[in-house]
Amino acid sequence: MNTDPTVITIIKAGWIGMFLGVASGAVIGLFFHREDWMGGYSSYRRRLTRLGHISFFGLAFVNFCFAFTQSVLPLAAPWNVIALRGFLIGAAAMPTVCFLSAWRKPFRHLFFIPVGGVLVGLCSELFCL
User: Fold this and answer.
1) What is the pLDDT of residues 33-80, one digit of tens each?
2) Omega before 78 within 30 of 0, i.e. cis
3) CA–CA separation, 30 vs 127, rounded Å?
4) What is the pLDDT of residue 77?
5) What DSSP character marks residue 34?
6) Looking at CB atoms within 10 Å, which of 9, 17, 23, 34 has the fewest?
7) Is the pTM of this model over 0.90?
8) Do 89 and 113 contact (CB within 8 A), yes or no?
9) How far is the C-alpha of 86 from the C-alpha of 11, rounded, in Å?
10) Residues 60, 14: contact at Cβ < 8 Å?
């Protein structure tokens, strides 16, 4: 069993993301049958809400991929912690910014936070293996 704290943390984050994806989908799914909900299917608000929901799953998958890579080809310190933090920031901030942007459009200017976090994680992984 791998007891690397980086791997354990990122796996937990992945499963939390999966849970939140299911939970948010269940809540949002209560209203999807209404065609006019949040301005209709193609409205900005509804698209951002769907993106927030699906980003839980997508970034959980990215976290699982990082955990697998870290188990097979571990990054040396401090790059493992930098990548971990970047992926965690992305996983937490992306759905948050999506839901906030669906609520109030000016929050869309905060997308650099989750994108930057994931980019830091990816660059740490790609260039430091």
Assistant:
1) 888 999 898 999 999 999 999 999 999 999 999 999 999 999 888 999
2) yes
3) 44
4) 87
5) -
6) 34
7) yes
8) yes
9) 14
10) yes
